[in-house]
Design a protein that fits this description.
By secondary structure, the chain is of the alpha+beta class. It is built from 12 helices and 7 strands.
């Protein structure tokens, strides 16, 4: 099914590319684009088959995301984030999945995982209040996954949960006016006070242990993979896609460029430009290959019913953050050598440069922290982190 979705998406790419500048300037993705991606099946690729999803190979999903991001990173970012949430909902109790998809399997979910919400235990569940930032694509979603801390009797946090909240329980405030990924409309979600029934919460500890309620109804290997692999890869994939698109545009434009200084001549004949292209292409390829390799190994182990070793989980995070780091280095190199024309707003190289840098500051792309975790693991030290 992944190949069918990819073919459908490729037919949409020319129109998405034409809308890229408008998407950037308007700070939101056109509703038409969301409808087209939904019709192509993008948002159902990682959704459980029992609830109308395709249960696709994650490698296929990330490839779709990269190709969308190559023509418009804001669109690819929202496709990736909204597309990965059905996977996480598949980890929740069956009733939570029924609440969301029971009437419409195309219902979409946004998120903001920072544990800034406050949960107070009450009969049958929790009372929630809080304000969350950076909920990408929230205006295209009817539910939200939000991070929150359970507060005990003495006012201290006792547990970290992800809670599922319907659109009727929160409001969206337009706060998104930024340098890159402008079209993602990653606005604030505000919950004054809402009741969250017990079946709409997921303990982050259980998720990290790969033992979650949703596995009882979704037994496929996809739902035995680590959040720290699936979600973080969904953050790096758009960045790699944007840079690959910027690379393709750079090569096409610079191939015909004639230098007006430094002795003139064709830009393509400059050995320094040739080396820059080689370095950028190698970094992009290496990142994709490593990430795909890790995801395939994770899925193979899960399919065989085998335990996923912490070494592989750490390696996956290592290569994921390095993928983002390499992508940013590649677009920096291209941007630096593209000349003054790269400064013009709206051109693909400039937009890829802005979007890649914006994506790189997501918490999932905290390079030093992820590499330090890998180093701790290599030394045999204990590693405790929800993003492994």
């Amino acid at each position: 099914m992944g190949n069918e979705v990819l073919e459908s998406v490729r037919a949409l790419l020319p129109a998405i590319e034409k809308r890229a500048v408008t998407t950037d300037e308007a700070r939101r993705i056109p509703a038409a684009t969301i409808r087209e991606l939904s019709g192509a099946g993008v948002f159902r690729m990682l959704q459980p088959s029992g609830f109308g999803g395709l249960e696709s190979d994650p490698v296929d999903f990330y490839r779709v995301v990269r190709e969308i991001s190559a023509v418009c990173c804001s669109t690819g970012w929202v496709a990736s984030v909204l597309g990965v949430h059905p996977w996480q909902l598949g980890l929740f109790p069956e009733q939570a999945q029924q609440d969301v998809w029971g009437e419409d399997p195309d219902t979409r979910i946004s998120s903001s995982y920072a544990p800034v919400g406050r949960l107070t235990p009450v009969d049958g569940g929790y009372e929630l209040a809080g304000r969350w930032s950076f909920s990408s694509g929230c205006e295209h979603a009817s539910w939200a996954l939000l991070g929150a801390l359970v507060v005990g009797a003495q006012g201290r946090p006792v547990d970290f949960l992800t809670v599922l909240v319907p659109r009727s329980d929160y409001r969206i405030e337009d706060m998104w006016d930024v340098v890159g990924l402008r079209g993602t409309a990653s606005n604030d979600v505000v919950v004054e006070t809402a009741f969250v029934p017990a079946h709409r919460v997921l303990r982050n500890y259980e998720q990290a242990q790969l033992k979650v309620p949703g596995q009882q109804v979704n037994p496929g290997p996809l739902y035995r993979l680590p959040f720290g692999a699936i979600f973080t890869s969904a953050v790096t994939a758009p960045v790699l896609g944007a840079v690959s698109g910027g690379y393709a545009s750079y090569v096409a434009r610079m191939k015909e460029r004639v230098r007006l200084s430094l002795g003139g001549g064709n830009f393509a004949d400059d050995p320094f430009a040739q080396v820059a292209i080689a370095r950028a292409a190698s970094d992009i390829d290496a990142s994709v290959l490593q990430m795909d390799r890790n995801m395939r190994e994770l899925l193979e182990l899960a399919s065989a019913g085998q335990e996923i070793p912490v070494e592989l989980r750490l390696r996956t995070r290592r290569d994921q953050v390095r993928g983002t780091e390499r992508a940013v280095a590649a677009i920096d190199l291209l941007f630096k050598t593209a000349g003054g024309n790269a400064l013009r707003r709206g051109n693909p190289v400039e937009r890829a440069w802005r979007d890649a840098h914006a994506g790189s500051v997501h918490v999932a792309n905290d390079v030093e922290r992820a590499l330090a975790m890998y180093g701790r693991g290599a030394f045999g030290l204990t590693v405790e982190d929800n993003l492994v």
